[in-house]
Amino acid sequence: MNWIDTIIQGILLGGLYALFAAGLALVFGIMRLVNLAHGDLIVLAAFLILLLVSALGLNPFIATAAALPVMFVLGWAMQFLVLNRTLGNDILPPLLVTFGLSVVIQNGLLEGFSADSRRISAGALETASLQIGPISIGTMPLLTFLSAVGVIVALNLIFYRTSLGRAFRATSDDSATAGLMGIRAERIFATATGLAMMVVTIAALYLGTRANFDPTMGPARLIYAFEAVIIGGLGSFWGTLAGGIIIGVAQTVGATINPEWQILAGHIAFLLVLLVRPRGLFPRAVD
Amino acid sequence: MALLETRGLTAFYGDFQALFGVDIALDEGETVAVIGANGAGKSTLLRSISGLIRNVPGQIRFDGREIGGLAAPDVLQLGIAMVPEGRRLFPSLSVEENLLIGRYGRVGNGAWSLDAIYDLFPVLKERRHQPGTALSGGQQQMVAIGRGLMSNPRVLLCDEVSLGLAPVVVRDIYAAFPKIRATGASIVIIEQDIGQALKVADRVYCMMEGRVTLSGTPATLSREDIHAAYFGAHAR
Ligand SMILES: Nc1ncnc2c1ncn2[C@@H]1O[C@H](COP(=O)(O)OP(=O)(O)OP(=O)(O)O)[C@@H](O)[C@H]1O
Ligand SMILES: [Mg+2]
User: What are the ABC transporter domain coordinates in residue numbering (chain B) (predicted)?
Assistant: First the structure.
């Protein structure tokens, strides 16, 4: 029973990693931009939620709903005003600029919130759990996983059922020809990053309620996000969830064997998948 | 006054000059063909008009406005759509999605809709859920033309729609042009096949090395004149 329990915990943890990763996959898929500040933006969103909870006394879920449009606008502006200028044939400028952004965000948060670690309180939900037969499932981990599934369903609907989604895919295929269709790539990119920041905000809620966070922990979240995206293979958002689950399960199984192996087991699983499937589980058809 | 005209149009790729003062005009409802050998600058002319290349604003005029400096989405919004060389369908989009995206920036008012395109090219309806790039060359060209029409443009720019297609397929595609004209659209066609160009166009321009070397109606142009304008005077 212990093992089943461990694997279920791992799958649910994978939901959190999928939430970290989905925004990264969205942005990279559309504009080939690797955002090194992604993890720091998650932490930034967590502080925003914390601020809304502590200053206005909001319930964390309401605070997250309020943070969503703020983060969309922030992402839109960041892409339109800064990151769009770095896009081109050279892959170095976006890396340098987002690395710089990462440093700026970390230091800004240190300045504003100090290095103390914080936590967003979800009240009674934190300890609540569901008993299914002999297995007990924490309500927050379950909500995290269901949110990840919800986010992926929503992203798929946007991508494959809306005019905006067609514009995302067309711009990603060939932005010059997309321009002939009246599609303004700069705005499409800004909208994509805005959406990614909404996903980041949802990820931040669960990051902040699950454990303590502090201004410097962004880059470590970025690594899990990267690994999930790469295992997933960029061909589908579901791949990102699969990637997150693989890392999550490897971590909980590793930790059960020896608590010191938790992080390492996740990275080893990542390398093993890459060894077998170098292009990830669900590679893109066109590249 | 012409609906669309270029006056002394120059165009550059970096330091390389591709057009040296091109003057062409297109009247409302007219079909004009531009012919010329490889590298003459025909595609550069259409890329300039459509906004893929930025030019001096006053060198291109549309409906009384200077549009030479506009970007492609702005030009489309004014009602000039382009069927680009090599079709350039979006591989991630199905046939129907490729058509639908043609009206992303402009819906216009006019006869063209998904159903009207499927009436024009019935084979596309059967294949509408397949990826655009899974189709034959001729069918892909139909999608590219349909995509251009979806915005109900006032001017349709077509760059070598017969490129690489078998003669029977070319005939099918050109059979659509009278129907497109009947909706009132003005058309610029780039064509390497002189016979085809003379058949479809009200007027013809011949380009060579970035300049217009000859223009006139098909009835007034002799084979010799066209030959000279196409390959240079030394071929005479
Ligand atoms: N992207 C580019 N960069 C540099 N030079 C270019 C570019 N595109 C075209 N040229 C040059 O500009 C000139 C005109 O090219 P253009 O494509 O307009 O010719 P074209 O008449 O359309 O030829 P074709 O019949 O082969 O399509 C040629 O000398 C070509 O080499
Ligand atoms: Mg050409």
Answer: 4-234
